[in-house]
Amino acid sequence: MRTSFAGLTVLCALTTTANAQWLDLPTKGIPRTADGKPNLAAPTPRTPDGKPLLDGLWVADDSRHLANLATDLKDVPFQPWSEKLYNERRANMGKDDPEARCMPQGVPKVNTLPYPFKIYTTPQAVVILYEMYYLHRQIFTDGRLFPKVFESPSWMGYSIGRWEGDDFVVETAGFNDQMWMDTFGHPHTDALHVTERFHRKDFGHMEVLATIDDPKTYTKPWSATIKQHLLPDTELLEFVCEKNLDPQHLVGK
Amino acid sequence: MRSGSLALTAAGLMFACVPMQAHHSFAAEFDTKKPVELTGTVTSIEWVNPHAWIHMDVKDESGKVASWNFELGSPNLLLRNGWRRDTIKPGDMITVSGSAAKDGSNLANARTVKTIDGKRVFNAGSSGEPGTPGAPQSGAPQQ
After folding, report:
1. What secondary structure letter does DSSP report for A133?
2. pLDDT per residue as tens digits for the range A174-216
3. Contact B25 A71 (CB under 8 A)
4. pTM for the predicted model, two decimal places
């Protein structure tokens, strides 16, 4: 079957004209052009003390880093065991990906999804709500340090944040060893330490520079820059994984 | 990754307006080398996460009826792509195009859903991630 361009036009028209319930409510506080369209090139909004305000509904520009977090790298500095495991996962076409069983994506994979996330800044923490699987993160900005021991390693880790110039720098550690960092299956261990630099370039565009530091899995740290854009005039929806029929059909090769 | 300017253009066009599926590797479950295009009567719709489903009775040339299950994108992706819960209703005759499951069951990933008169074509919103081997982009022409 060959889809015609007329068909594609219909498809695209549907995506741009139709929204539902709160999905078509104009978002307040977004600068707009004379014709009422969101002005996503407007300057970065700032807090009274001059720091960029990250608040808004964001989504990754594309799914390249969801498929392969190392997509922009020529070589990934694998340890021998992690390269072997990665190759096995690739050969099996990712059939054992915990995300296919509705487990949390972890960090930094949550920045790469085709579902939006919403940032709220509070005096003690930056809170991120993720649509997919109903996840959240509290990035504490109250000056606390990591505990000496993470008694309960977790999928999303424990996050603390600070400002460096216009970058919001988030350190996350205390992970379990269960998540895959992308669909291709880049591995990690509980030694994983992720640094994310959130940089809001203007009103409608943000970059997240994520650095992977896990010496048990990689011989040196490596990074990915995941571009985000603001989603105006829409809202987070519920996404509870209520009926997952995929695992029984995931055969791999 | 892809060859052919038409494919690239179409893929880029769709990419601009349709988010990609997350949740699982497309190629681990479906085979793009097994395209299906089936016409039948909708028996039920399931508006559930992580995938919405269309269940359909398909009659073959001998008149024998087989029940087929089509995996779509999530309700959230479908809503943002213009679907409503009543876009397709039980009893509707539709044509679904997509890729069959690798395990040989009467299961397929739906790429597009067409009304029987061919006038309305809906992106089914479930097509795998770009960069994943074997995953087509939603609505992109099949090569």
Report:
1. G
2. 999 999 999 999 999 999 999 999 999 999 999 999 999 999 9
3. no
4. 0.82
Nearest alpha-carbon partner for A117 in B19, B67, B25: B19
Which residues of chain A neighbour B88 with C-beta distances below 8 Å? none
Give the model confidence (pLDDT) of A54-92 as tens digits: 999 999 999 899 999 999 999 999 999 999 999 999 999
pLDDT tens digits for range B108-142: 988 888 888 777 777 776 543 333 333 333 333 22
The three-state (H, E, C) secondary structure of A238-251, written as one string: CCCCCCCCCHHHCC
Could you tell me which of A15, A209, A56 has the C-alpha nearest to residue B15? A15
Residue A41 touches partner B, C-beta closer than 8 Å:
no
A 10 A CB-CB count for A58 gives 22
Residue with tokens 């600070």: A162
Choose the closest CB to A95 out of B28, B75, B141: B28
Nearest Cα neighbor of A95 from B125, B139, B133 is B133
